[in-house]
Amino acid sequence: MLCKHTKFPQKGCVIRRYEYVIQMKLLFIIVVIVGLYLSHLDILAGNSL
User: Fold this and answer.
1) With the CA atoms of 28, 15, 17 and 2 taken in that order, what torsion angle do they form, in degrees rounded to the nearest 10?
2) Helix, strand, coil: what percent of the chain each, to 5?
3) pLDDT by residue for the chain (49 residues), tens digit each?
4) For residue 35, how many other CB atoms are within 10 A of its CB?
5) Residue 20: which residues within 8 A CB-CB, separation 6 or more?
6) How many angstroms separate the CA atoms of 1 and 14, rounded?
7) Distance CA 32, CA 27 (A)
8) What is the pTM of this model?
9) CA angle 15, 18, 23 (to 5 degrees)
């Protein structure tokens, strides 16, 4: 899926690179949200105990 790093990039490589960056940002945001959600659950569980 990713473009090979050559001297002359093939057509569509720049677009794929931007898509890759966007996907990584979305993945990072999802991980952060899930992490905050889980830590919030841990705090609630700790308080209930």
Assistant:
1) 110
2) 75, 0, 25
3) 455 666 565 666 676 778 888 999 999 999 999 999 988 887 777 766 5
4) 10
5) 2
6) 12
7) 9
8) 0.52
9) 125
